[in-house]
Amino acid sequence: MAKRGMTVTRFDEIKRLIVAGRSDREIARSIRVRRTMVAQIRCGQSRDPRIPKVLVGPVWAQGIDWDDVISELGYHHPLKFIWEEKAASLTTYSNFWKIFYRKFPLLRKALSTPREFAAGDRAEVDWAGWTVEWVNPQTGEIRDACIFVGALCFSQFAFARAFENMKSRAFLEAHRRMYDFFQGVPQVTVPDNPKTAVTKCHLYDPDINPAYLELAKYCGTAIVPARPRHPKDKAIVEGLVKLLKRYFRWLHRRRTFTSIVEINQALLEAIERINSKPHTRFKVSRHDRWEKIERAALKPLPAAPFESVEWKQAILHPDCTVSVESNYYSAPNELRGKSLQVKISDLLVEIYYQAERVAAHARDKTRRGRRIIDPKHFPENSRAYYEATPNNLLSSARFLSSDLHGLVEELFKKDTLGHIRIVQGLTRVATKEINETTHEDTAKRIKKAVQTMRLYNRFRVSYFSDLLKSYRKQVLTNEDREINRIPGNEMLRYAGASEGCANLKEPFIDDLSTNGLGDISPKQAELPLLN
Questions:
Q1: Counting CB atoms within 10 angstroms of each CB, which of 141, 179, 204, 505 has the fewest?
Q2: 27 in a domain, yes or no?
Q3: pLDDT higher than 80, residue 357
Q4: Are residues 78 and 168 in the same domain?
Q5: What is the rounded CA–CA span in Å between residue 55 and residue 44?
Q6: What pLDDT was estimated at residue 507?
Q7: Same domain flag for 239 and 174
Q8: pLDDT given at position 74
């Protein structure tokens, strides 16, 4: 029985016997191959085993540009999208990827084992590791939008939304919108380990961020963070992030976004396309699986929407205040130098020490360095200072100028403690100006300076001082001075005492002019005065 396999050694031996003049029958009998194979080698129709076999494939495969397919895969576009665009009308997807992996076996991916979850049991969330650029049409600035992704593990029903940043408020708002999108709350929510979710990692007992924990208690879900550097603990959302990235970049690869609203609309289109497409394992869409089975298993949403809060650590300053969003809020003076917890909501700023609330203030969103204080938080000497000093400054301003007094009253009505130092500087500059000149003249200049500061809404001590100096110089330069001219020559003038010019006799000038001396200089005209 002839051997069917052709090796390089047997091929070379057949070629040698052909050159030696042996017949096809003799070569086939000695090498134990078919005579047709010997005849093909003699005619040059048989392939040399040294040359790798080229897979031609079916007819439809010859009309596809496989180099272009490899190029698209280099941009991390999924193979199924490429098939839809280039070969959906030629063959099925299964035939397409079979031929593809025969041609390129090194690109074959490893197998994966799916996990099973109960309906309404678990949801996984994560910030996508990629951002979407958008251009501000007014300034031309290029910014990056962060993408939040969430998924229900049973139906793999997906949610995505873009935010300006990944701070705590955006993180909590993303969860609130995700639960609204799911129309229910799962039993367990599995995040990663950012500071907005976990303040301190631990394998068994991690410390959850207080604001995130309040959201979980309010909505009725348990926070079970994934282990650090273990992405398989939340493999559902990790795979969804990859899938959404491929869909989004493929659908909008030639689009430039101009706002986050546009990005969210595009994300919603991509999510709806993912949710409405039949799942390869379930054979039904994610939306159908969620609507028919999982939605009823989710916990109901709270009656009122969750008010997002933010927590931060702060140390009470010696002036009995903590800095929050560029403003200053007071706390009891007994806690100076101690670490406090500050809870920031939309309307309140609450200060806690060892889980006990010690102060609460209305939140000021201006970020202008204002001081929001309660006098009870200060010791007695500080309270006496804050009560007596404004009255003393008002009395001083009333004595200096009625206009300055009105300005001080205005500033104290806005923020007494915040403007004490400024008013002290204004009164000091005004007092110094009065001591150098007169009270009446300085009052006019103070009135004009106060009007200018109000016009430009600039209440600064240095600006007030510069205005008084400039107005003082203007008065000196605009002062009218009488110019006395020498009789007989109006082109000459003398700015000295008028009596000297009055005693100058006209005959003397006439004599000079009649003696042939011609015109005289100012110095010559002054000589008789010196004598």
A1: 204
A2: no
A3: yes
A4: no
A5: 20
A6: 43
A7: yes
A8: 83
Given this model, what pLDDT does residue 4 score? 58
> Where are the alpha helices (H) located in 143-234, listed in sequence order?
168-182, 210-219
Question: Are residues 465 and 373 part of one domain?
Answer: no
pLDDT-above-70 percentage for the chain: 85
Q: Are residues 349 and 407 in the same domain?
A: no
Model confidence at 495: pLDDT above 50: no
Interatomic CA distance for residues 264 and 287, integer angstroms: 19
Residue 514's pLDDT band, with cuts at 50, 70 and 90, is: very low
Q: 194 and 142 in one domain?
A: yes
Last residue of some domain: 360, 378, 396?
378
Residue type at position 388: A
- Tell me the C-alpha distance between 501 and 492, whole Å: 12
Q: Pick the most confident of 3-17, 101-115, 237-251.
A: 237-251
pLDDT band at 1 (very low <50, low <70, confident <90, very high): very low
Q: Residue 483's pLDDT band (boundaries 50, 70, 90)?
A: low
Distance CA 456, CA 188 (A): 57
For every residue of 43-104, DSSP letters joined together read HT-SPPTTSPPP----HHHHTS-HHHHHHHHHTT--HHHHHHHHTTTTS-HHHHHHHHHHH-
> What's the angle, vertex CA 373, arms to CA 367 and CA 376, rounded to 5?
170
The Cα–Cα gap between 44 and 48 comes to: 9
Interhelix angle 506-514/522-530, rounded to 10 degrees, is: 130
Residue 27's SS3 state is helix
Q: If you average pLDDT over every residue of the chain, what do you get?
A: 84
Structure tokens at 486: 């020498």
Number of helices (H) and strands (E) in the chain: give both, helices first: 21, 16
Residue 498 CB burial class (10 angstroms; 0-12, 13-18, ≥19): exposed
Of residues 213, 225, 211, 197, the one with CA closest to residue 122: 225
